[in-house]
Amino acid sequence: MPPAADVPNVLTPEQGYEATYRFVAQYFERERIVPLMLMLTSMRPTPDEYRTNDPAAWSDWERWVQETLAGTPLPEVSAPHG
Predict the structure, then answer these.
(1) Were 50 and a residue from 35, 55, 66, 78 both cysteine, which residue would form a disulfide, CB within 3.0 to 4.6 Å?
(2) What is the CA angle 69-74-78, rounded to 5?
(3) Residue 49: what pLDDT?
(4) Domains: count for the chain
(5) 50: containing domain
């Protein structure tokens, strides 16, 4: 889908984080999976210096942004065993 003419097509890391949060939140609305709820709780943006409920979440996010910009392949995700 091409971007609308009046909407920038480049996100700041903060806007990307918010977009990701929104994506996971809408998925959680369809699939009420407890681990997603816990993830959303820790990811919730905050106005303080930590930027999220889980102080490690923002630094993790910054690392993944850098890996993405560097072209690092996406991690492989497999079904749980058991």
Answers:
(1) 55
(2) 165
(3) 85
(4) 1
(5) 13-67
Query: Using one digit for the tens of pLDDT, what is the confidence trace for 37-81?
Result: 999 999 999 998 888 999 899 999 999 999 999 999 998 988 887
Give start and end residues of each alpha helix (H) in 1-82: 13-30, 34-43, 55-69
Sign of CA dihedral 46, 49, 55, 59: positive
> 29 in a domain, yes or no?
yes
Is 8 within a domain?
Answer: no
Interatomic CA distance for residues 79 and 64, integer angstroms: 22
Considering the entire predicted model, what is its pTM?
Answer: 0.74
One-letter identity of residue 49: E
Given a cut of 70, whether residue 4 has pLDDT beyond it is no
Q: Which two tokens stand for residue 39?
A: 């993830």
